[in-house]
Amino acid sequence: MVTVYGMKSSGNCYKVQLLLEQLQSPYRWIDIDSANGETRTPQFLAKNANGKVPLLELDDGRRLSESNAILNFLAEGTPYLPGDVWLRAQVLQWMFFEQYSHEPYVAVARFICRWLPADHARRADLPRLIERGAQALDVMEKHLVGRDFFVGDDYTIADIALFAYTHCAADGGFDLAAYPAICAWLARVQARPRFVRMQG
Questions:
Q1: Arithmetic mean of pLDDT, 62-67
Q2: Does 102 share its domain with 169?
Q3: Mean predicted confidence (pLDDT) in 99-103
């Protein structure tokens, strides 16, 4: 059984939870409140010097951080990660896109809107974050026209990675009604077997 250190309201942690639930893999979840500094304690930094969740810990003590690396590890040998080298590369392409072009804007806007006070200086960043996040959503919208999922014909960890922060993008001020293909894709993901909702 693997152990996951995570925060249930974090999209990056939710990715790992969703895949584990859909794989029906047994796991132990340890709540870590990163919003209140629990990833910066000496005890946690001894496990992950980068001080972030999620963190996956195997029974033998090995640890893996970075949400999309964890998804790749857990999905190996399952239908969620294609065996075909070209399809696998496309899955990675979309996961890199999620971390570089999507999450830094969509997730950060959500964090500012949900967790920072109304007079916080970082709220001045919101117009730029909304603009850049909308660019990522535009790329996704165009790609999803005429497609059920991001890669090939099947639901993969590319969909899980992108679903995590897209489905709650409204928390950060994004209007998903402007993206009908994305909305239809979100509904397809939510209809998958053993789907679980993000908590918090």
A1: 98
A2: yes
A3: 98
pLDDT at 36: 87
Same domain, 158 and 89: yes
Q: Encode pLDDT of 134-171 as tens digits.
A: 999 999 999 999 999 999 999 999 999 999 999 999 99
pTM strictly above 0.85: yes
DSSP string computed for 14-55 = HHHHHHHHHHT--EEEEE--GGGTTTSSHHHHHH-TT--S-E
Contact present, 12 and 67 (Cβ < 8 Å): yes
At residue 19's C-alpha, the angle toward residues 165 and 64, to 5°, is 90
Note down the domain range covering 12.
2-75
Same-domain status, 69 and 89? no
Query: Which residues lie below 8 Å from residue 184, measured CB to CB, with a gap of 6+?
Result: 144
DSSP 194: T
Q: Which of 53, 26, 23, 19 is nearest to 38 (CA)?
A: 53
**73-104: string of b/e by CB count within 10 Å (b at 16+)?**
ebbeeeebbbeeeebbebbbebbebbeebbbe
